[in-house]
Amino acid sequence: MTRPLIFEISRPGRCAASLPALDVPPADLPEELVRRDVSLPEVGELDLIRHYTRLSQLNHGVDVGFYPLGSCTMKYNPKINEQMARLPGFARLHPYQDEETVQGALFLMYHLQEFLAEIGGFAAVSLQPAAGAHGELTGVLMMRAYHLARGDERRDVILVPDSAHGTNPATTTMSGLRVIEIPSDARGNVDLAALEAACREHGDCLVGMMLTNPNTLGLFDEHVEEITALVHEHGGLMYGDGANMNALLGIARPGDLGFDVLHYNLHMTFSTPHGGGGPGSGPVGASERLADFLPAPIVDVDPERSSDEGEFYTFVDPPKSIGRVKAFYGHFGVLVRAYVYTRMLGAGGLRRVAEHAVLNANYLKERLKATYPLPYDRTCMHEFVLAGPPEDVQEAGVHTMDVAKRLMDYGFHPPTVYFPLIVPEALMIEPTETESLEVLDGFVEALLRIAEEARADPDLLHTAPHDAPLQRLDEVHAAKNLILRWEPE
Amino acid sequence: MPYIPHSDRDRGTMLAAIGIRSIEELFEDVPEHVRFPELNLPTALSEIDVRWELETLAGANLTTAECPCFLGAGAYHHFVPSVVDAVLSRGEFYTAYTPYQPEISQGTLQAIFEYQTMICALTGMEVSNASHYDGATATAEAVITAINVHRLKRRKVALSPFVHPEYRAVVRTYTQGMGLTIAGDEGGGAAELTGLLDEETACLIVQYPDFLGRIEDLGALAAAAHAAGALLVVVADPIALGLLKPPGEFGADIVVGEGQGLGAGLNFGGPYLGFFAARQKYARKIAGRIVGQTVDAAGERGFVLTLSTREQHIRRERATSNICSNQGLVLLAAAVYMAALGKCGMRQVAELCYHKSHYAQRRIGEIDGFTVVDDEPFFKEFMVHCPRPVEEINRYLLEEWDIVGGYDLGRDYPHLQDHMLLCVTEMNSREEIDALVEALEEVTS
After folding, report:
1. What is the CA radius of gyration of chain B?
2. In A, residues 303-342, which contact B (CB 8 Å cutoff)?
3. Residue B209 belongs to a domain with what CATH number?
4. B309-330 pLDDT tens trace
5. pTM passes above 0.90
């Protein structure tokens, strides 16, 4: 199968768009302003559609098959969400229109803020952050601003567990703060003794701690309330990385557990699509003491313009806001999808989401743990981490990457691999609640067969995938011989 | 139960395999006093009811589908060809994750590689990443790149007052912990800005065309920045680049901007597309995902994410940025848009914007009481000095004419009270422009 680039099917004089003729007299166009040419492709409309249709067929997506990518919550993306986000009444609004003309949009945003605050146990929510990492930056800057507003200028340390997503330490640096890493204990929790020692050592300069709970091992930290209490005792604040909120919907509210600020990933927990890498949406919830620091603007009711006929919604800037974190108000199109999802599920439906996500994960864990080593043998939440293929297989030179590539031949997307860093050969599996028992059983059967194949014919795994659009790709070659754009020969 | 396929029988099988009797038992690690809160949320709706509710909410908004719109200021009413949504609606694209497993993600990866190539062509640059959240955050990331290029030794940023006000605000928010000096945007313009350039300055940031729509001479600014050893960062409108000389030709070091005009629609402000392009020598300094070409085990051409040692999942606290999710699907829209319009179409859209906005500017300048500046080149936006407050005029346009008027520049620039920024694109017909002119004539009569 050949896969030409769009530039390689380009022929001079073709165009896939029809534009109106100029209906006004042309203006003077100074030649010195004008570029010579722009080397974009020239293709007809049918050729264009076939090109992208073929490309799409080279992709695995949730609509194609099981996608148990740990930490990414690849659940079904409901089709009603897509339709509602495309309603012209939402899709064709200019962000600077008069507030009076966009009351439907502001109603939706205000109520989504309220839903998220209720689900997370927070006083207020900003919908502005564009993705999880963007929410982290927002939250950490808010924590920093909180201390500065109290005249407490020494604080520059953020505690981050060694199991954390890479975005946590990267966010800390971007915020101009220092990372102190906290180890995990034998049960996969934050090591309390180490945390206490770090709090004592850095107490005076502690901004706070970033904690993912359930953590990236898929485990609910058994000491979470002790952790939040300890950090608070030393004057720090608790940041919650909400990447794993799918396990907590209607199960526990981070605000009730002592978190001061948390980001939600609407593109994970609230069913909005990942889009091949984005757009995400990372609203941030804040406790009473951090609410005033939320990014501007947020939506509120304007009592003066409200009446018996209805509330009037307006943008307001929180009094001590860290400022804006992006232009305009957030990923509105994503917010519409998350709103639809929350309205369709209600409180009971959200709790059932978490329950079945956790049920599916524990079912897979129990069926696999006799064959694939399970480093932390506890009840897991929505995901769990295996320590690679069976030991004898690893000794024979078959690794997690080989298992991952071989899974493609069975029609599955591999789990997250080699993360978290504290588990060697990690295979991080998150089935989500939207997968049926038959799919889970099929996945288990595939992994069990792959373990047998690894013993019988290790090369079969080393050279996998065999049935994917391409064989294994050389990433080292790409980094050494940088080709980052197409150039004509 | 929506989206959950389990029957009672399935649940029974699974609980038995786990060795427990109820799902509740799975949550015993959660402190009991906070476990299973009663969430106060409105009752769940069926798909029929949710559709009705959303259609009602959407119907409560006035849209650019219903009335002429002359509002721009960073979000533009441009034509989105139907092929764009046809491609975006394919589940294989929109339900995929970041292409970390390249063998089964070639569709996304090749589309990004093609996008990178087209962004480079449009901007006149050599490398492009796979996007930032929007034009504002791409600008902030460009500042961080410039600081890193100078190995943190230069900590001053010269920022034009005519970069989008919200982008300037985001630059300040992003860098508030970095100890930078951001200067220039309280002042008057180019001359003042170049006067700030010194051996402390990491970069000079200007917008092209600027926030008021004007086309500045980037060549002089590039020379001034480079003479001081600073980088020139240009925030560009990609639609304008279909016609105007690309920033790369003037010597820009980094070109960023808002890619919303490239097929993303207005969407009340997002999701949009931050594009980011740079000189080849900065390839290892820039943030975000980058796709590179490689070969598979059989020697066939393929594409992978590359240079990932810059990124947070590998480099952690030493990463170039914390960015993870980007604007994948919006980037795809931009790629399809640029491929659909192509060489001729991009030029044609830009020319339509140029000529129609000039027609509108000339006609409005002829109305008593309205003045325009007619000796500076502009692209699709222009400033009008109005005889009455902009808010009043906009209210009149909306209530009497069903026209969405321009942007009130007094919001951001105290010296520009009563100045309106109007935007005219290929979406505005001559009839719409003539109606706007007639409406504005009524305002003064």
Report:
1. 25
2. 322-334, 336, 339-340, 342
3. 3.40.640.10
4. 888 888 898 888 999 999 999 9
5. yes
